[in-house]
Amino acid sequence: MSTLTQQTLSHLDWLEAEAIHIMREVAGQCSSPVLLFSGGKDSVCMLRIAEKAFRPGRFPFPLMHIDTGHNYPEVIAFRDKRAAELGERLIVRSLEDSMARGSIVLKHENESRNKHQSVTLLEAIEEFGFDACIGGARRDEEKARAKERIMSFRDEFGQWDPKNQRPELWNLYNARSHKGENIRAFPISNWTELDVWQYIQREQLELPSIYFAHTRPVVRKGELLMPVTDLTPAKPGDTIEEVMVRFRTVGDVSCTAPVESDADTVEKILAETATTTITERGATRMDDQTSEASMEQRKKEGYF
Q1: pLDDT exceeds cutoff 80 at 142
Q2: CA dihedral 171, 177, 182, 184 (to 10 degrees)
């Protein structure tokens, strides 16, 4: 690459080029990959990366979402709309079906389903024979994610061992696996939350409306804001407030909290993100607040 070309590439150009390279490596080395797509902001960026990697042809993999059944309706509607616009196959596998089979048993009716997605994911991998799942996780999200390789190996039981990972010297990636084993590939591992929003701005990507400031009924639970919904109703003694909020990350309704914000445009969100000192999961995920449901433990059990 010439010096002139190096000088004209922006920070986002380098990140995008790396992500395209990784996605093509997965497609080239794996026989049956799948791209995880929830409708969230990171997976929206992943769709754009896939477009740049493989268009004008079709994607060499389907899209898949593991649906808890407790997702925000705005996000599910956006998921279906975006997949239809792209004309790509969308596979949806539901925790409700795993619960009906008895492979998922909740401790109580109101337990968060988020951590149980591992079971349905592993069932879907076995059902379709996927040997690689491409996800939008980033190392800056959470400490356990920071330990993970870009090509993260899972054994025949779907388990991850943080102390036994493949080296990735000189950006050489090994996505090969034996039958029954699996690779989780993370093309935007090196991106930050700010990078994601800058990319959304540059590419003019559409997002679900809940990422932007809106008024929503909430109850304060310590430092978190619990949204008041049919699944998470206010309890006796709770004080319901109408607060201007937005979501930094989106997951199961029972464990994903918004943050107070008046940022209703990408530009305002960029300014807000540039000054925050709290990670998006640290500020908004109720299921990351206890060691029992820690991200590292869930990943060892097969989580994304």
Answers
A1: no
A2: 10
Structure tokens at 240: 């319901």
Instruction: Please provide residue 133's backbone torsions phi and psi, each rounded to the nearest 5 degrees.
Output: -115, 120
Would you call 36 exposed, middle or buried from its count of C-beta atoms within 10 A (0-12, 13-18, 19+)? buried
Q: How far apart, in Å, do the first and last CA atoms of the chain sit?
A: 35
Phi, psi of 41, deg, nearest 5:
-65, -40
Residue closest to 300 by CA, chosen among 140, 165, 107: 165
pLDDT tens figures, 218-265: 999 888 899 999 888 999 999 999 999 999 988 888 888 899 999 999
The whole model's pTM is what?
0.87
Residue 293, pLDDT > 80, answer: no
At residue 90, φ and ψ (nearest 5 deg) are: -115, 120
Phi/psi for 16 (5° steps) reads -65, -45
Per the listing, tokens 């590939």 go with 185
Amino acid at 301: E
Q: Which domains does the chain have, with CATH numbers?
A: 10-191+292-300 (3.40.50.620), 196-289 (no CATH)
Q: Which two tokens stand for residue 42?
A: 């990171």
226 DSSP assignment: E
Query: Tell me, what DSSP letter sits at residue 51?
Result: H
Q: For residue 261, which phi and psi values (nearest 5 degrees)? A: -170, 150
Beta bridge partners of 152: 184
> How far, in Å, CA of 124 to CA of 120, rounded?
6
